[in-house]
Specification:
alpha/beta, Metallo-beta-lactamase, Chain A
């Protein structure tokens, strides 16, 4: 399994010398979820050592430029590199006009592999290979959605119990598939006899929003939460006015939802690199778990599965 977040950009509306516009590639086994490709994403992908063939989903939270102006370049790179697999595109359905403008922003040899998957309503579940991609609406001046990736729950096999009951080789696979198997001594062995429940892994991606119930629903119990922390608490009134979160609010969400790893991102250009510790401190005042203040080109693994 290969599950990690590759950070392509961490700025908000205005990029800086050290922070590119947004861009986050979540690699999950064979899937690659590219969230909010802002301007410059295609070049950041080169710096990060990833390419168009790594993308299976393009997920746009909303159609403010710092979250979507990289779409034309990514689309055209998918076409130029002759990506053969389907690339799904999730975005707010109410922004269809903007999607079409970005999707066909200039003349190029087009591709047929990109399939539109507009999201709408209070909750939408989309099958995405081995996981489910869930979209929920957020609170922002324009239609905005957050996303969550969930792996189905499974079971952890117990070798000692399998051995005790004489179940080995192909019988183990049969037991996993069928739920029961006949052991060599003629006894019936049930899956529950030789295994324990194993929770699936999960990750959530929450960009531009005020605090709302949907933020907490997306973040509930996830292994990794990538969340905007555009402002520090001194600008909390400004954050509310413009539909954003502070680092302290991000920490509050992580604490209340039992998040395992909190990743802060989407920083206002008013803050310098020297302010990173302030973001960490504000989030840590509410959340005692692991916190990462994201920087461009970081690779952040999804925490190992809990047993």
């Amino acid at each position: 399994m290969h599950r990690e977040l590759i950070v392509l950009g961490t700025a908000s509306a205005v990029p800086t010398r050290h922070r590119n516009h947004n861009g986050y590639l979540l690699r999950w086994d064979g899937e690659g979820f590219l969230f909010d490709p802002g301007e410059g994403t295609q070049r950041q992908m080169l710096h990060a050592g990833v390419g168009a063939h790594d993308i299976t989903w393009i997920c746009v939270t909303h159609f403010h430029g710092d979250h979507c102006l990289g779409v034309p370049g990514v689309v055209q790179r998918i076409a130029r590199d002759r990506v053969g697999h389907t690339v799904h595109a999730a975005y707010p359905a109410s922004g269809e006009t903007y999607w079409q403008r970005l999707r066909h922003a200039s003349a190029f040899a087009d591709t047929s592999v990109i399939k539109a998957r507009p999201v709408s309503g209070e909750i939408m579940h989309l099958p995405a290979g081995p996981v489910t991609l869930t979209a929920r609406p957020l609170s922002h001046p324009v239609a905005s959605y957050g996303y969550r990736v969930d792996e189905p729950a499974g079971r952890r096999m117990l070798p000692s119990e399998l051995s005790r009951r004489g179940v080995s080789g192909s019988l183990i696979g049969e037991l996993q598939r069928q739920g029961t198997v006949t052991a060599p001594d003629g006894s019936t062995v049930h899956l529950a006899d030789c295994s324990l429940p194993r929770p699936g892994q999960s990750a959530a991606f929450v960009m531009d929003t005020r605090l709302c119930d949907e933020v907490f629903a997306l973040a509930e119990g996830v292994d990794m939460l990538v969340i905007e922390s555009t402002f520090l608490s001194a600008e909390s009134a400004l954050a509310t006015e413009y539909g954003h979160l502070t680092a302290a609010q991000a920490g509050k969400v992580a604490a209340e939802c039992g998040v395992r790893r909190l990743v802060l991102a989407h920083f206002s250009e008013r803050y310098a690199e020297a302010d990173e510790q302030r973001f960490l401190d504000e989030a840590a005042a509410a959340f005692a778990g692991e916190i990462v203040v994201a920087r461009d080109l970081m690779r952040i693994p999804v925490p190992k599965r809990e047993t």
